Amino acid sequence: MATAIVLFNRDLRVHDHPALAAACERAERVVPLFVLDPAVPEGNRRGFLLECLAELRAALRARDGDLVVRQGDVVRETMKLAAEVGVTTICASADVSSLARRREERFAGERIEYLLFPGVTVVPPDALRPSGGGDHYRVFTPYWRAWTRHPRRPVLPPPRAVRTPSGLAAGRLPRPQPPGPAPGGEPAARERADRWLRHGLDGYADGHDDLAGDRTSRLSPYLRFGCLSPLELACRAERSESFVRQLCWRDFHHQVTYAFPRIGRENYRHPERRWRQDPDALQAWQAGMTGLPIVDAGMRQLLAEGWMHNRARLITAAYLVRHLGLDWRDGVRHFFQHLLDGDVADNSGNWQWVAGTGNDTRPNRTFNPLRQAKRYDPDGHYVRRYVPELAGVPAPYVHEPWRLPSPPAGYPARLDSAADQG
Ligand SMILES: Cc1cc2nc3c(=O)[nH]c(=O)nc-3n(C[C@H](O)[C@H](O)[C@H](O)COP(=O)(O)OP(=O)(O)OC[C@H]3O[C@@H](n4cnc5c(N)ncnc54)[C@H](O)[C@@H]3O)c2cc1C
């Protein structure tokens, strides 16, 4: 390879980056490129992305390289730059969404060598096939068994030097304003991961469902943007099976999405299932004003932090689809709009799991939000943290304020009185 473009997308790091490592090893000159899509809306995720790009640029500059930034259609802009610099090869990380797959197909139709590398998941999404046939695993447990046995590629160090040709306009990066709920970028990701592996990991198995304790890693936005290699994290965290299992869930949803790219739009199973329309109920759920404290706390955490605890995601999602009977796609859209870690495979895969149209082996399991609240937030601290109207309500009533002799001021009446059944 004479000159190669490394096309970054959601792999915004220099550590353990197979496409970058291969280009730096094999090509004489390397052009790291990110094409900003002007259609990406303002908001949490865009701000986070811009911080990630600024950090990536700094890391590449520290290695004699640079990050070239362009705006527009990714294939058109990449091919324009390729013609300008005389590029013979494009290296990129393979991805699973329908958007990513369409991009890959378009590049494959261009007159240039287009090479795909792993890096977005621990195990590549097409690496494992069930012994009974089929192009992907539909059930988690057999996938987990195959996943743990699959040989892993080595974790790669960052390249020592990135020889970006001089005289190339680097392109301006818009400034993220104001600062988002978490700092973006690889240094912040590595610092958080180091801290988590030292102080958080060993308590994960017992503490990860404790809503108020907030004892999960909060690494999801960094994994979403690829500031952290999932393979490196899985290797470093191997002493906690329960944590590594969560990373396997992430891979699981990615391999389902690879096989069924319409996962964000169509029922994976039960195409006949229909949902109710109720704009007022949907709006109350979105705003955290359903009158069911555990649901409202989760929805308000999402609005305040751009993140929600996994147990709260399960409770709020089950409430929307099972108790209100509304469409899981409405939930997907709202979560996707606000989550820093919002991602097609994990968001839609989990929503369909909860709705009973996905990969749950017990799609009709009951899910009682009140029982969940009392089990995972027994003292009500999580609810009080996010629902100030209930800040002064004592434990026996904080999850059921309708049992108080006079309702707390400003807090709505229950939207769905069937939520404690089932
Ligand atoms: C309805 C619903 C929607 C969700 N949408 C998303 C989403 O858009 N993006 C996203 O990254 N996760 C999503 N999840 C999964 C999970 O809630 C988050 O990954 C987790 O809460 C992130 O917090 P953490 O990093 O502290 O997780 P930890 O518990 O510390 O787990 C470590 C990592 O494992 C992965 N992981 C954990 N649980 C899951 C899971 N159930 N499915 C897939 N990967 C998992 C994540 O990458 C996470 O960062 C969703 C779950 C539900 C129920």
Distance, first to last CA? 62 Å
Could you report the average pLDDT, rounded to the nearest whole number?
95
CATH superfamily of the largest domain: DNA Cyclobutane Dipyrimidine Photolyase, subunit A, domain 3
Q: In one word, what is the shape?
A: globular
Share of residues in strands:
5-15%
What is the CATH topology classification name of the largest domain?
DNA Cyclobutane Dipyrimidine Photolyase, subunit A, domain 3
Spell the H/E element sequence: EHEHEHEHEHHHHHHHHHHHHHH
Structure explained in plain terms:
GO terms for molecular function: deoxyribodipyrimidine photo-lyase activity. InterPro entries: Crypto/Photolyase_FAD-like_sf, Crypto/Photolyase_N_sf, Cryptochr/Photolyase_FAD-bd, Cryptochrome/DNA_photolyase_1, DNA_photolyase_1_CS_C, DNA_photolyase_N, Rossmann-like_a/b/a_fold. The protein has 422 residues and is an alpha/beta fold. It has three domains: 3-119, Rossmann fold (3-Layer(aba) Sandwich); 121-153 and 188-259, Serine Threonine Protein Phosphatase 5, Tetratricopeptide repeat, CATH 1.25.40; 279-403, DNA Cyclobutane Dipyrimidine Photolyase, subunit A, domain 3. It is 44% helix and 6% strand. It has a five-stranded parallel β-sheet, with helices on both faces. β2 (29-36), α2 and β3 form a beta-alpha-beta unit. The longest helix is centred in the middle third of the chain and has 19 residues, at 241-259. The protein is globular and about 75 Å long. The mean pLDDT is 95. The chain binds flavin-adenine dinucleotide. The site of flavin-adenine dinucleotide (FAD) has 27 residues, from α8, α10, α13 and α15. Flavin-adenine dinucleotide is lined by residues 208, 216-220, 223-224, 246-247, 249-250, 253, 310, 313-314, 317, 335, 339, 341-343, 346-347, 350-351, 354.
